[in-house]
Amino acid sequence: MKKVEELLLDRKKQIEAMEVPLELEDRLTTVLKNKGRKNKKILNRKWLQVAAILLIVFMVSYNFNTLAYYSKKLLGYDNVMNGTLKELNELGRGQVIGESYTFENGITITLDGVMMDEGQLLAFFTVKEPSGALEASEYPSQMHLKGLTRNYRMLYGQGEIIEGENEIKWLMAFEAPRFYEKSLQFKTSLKLEDHWEEASINFTIDRSKAMKPSLKKNINKTFQVEYTTIKVESIVASPTQTIINGRLQSIFQLAKDQMLGERMRPNQVNIKLLANGKEVHNFGAGLTTDLNGMTFENRFDALPTDLHTLEIHLESFSVDRDVEGEVELNKNQDNSNIEVLGKEIKIDGVLEENGNTYVTITTAEDIVLTKVYLIIDGSRVNLKETVAVGYDKLQDGSIVHTRTLNFPSTGEKLQLNIERMSFTEDYNQIIKIPVE
Question: What pTM value is reported for the model?
Answer without folding.
Answer: 0.62
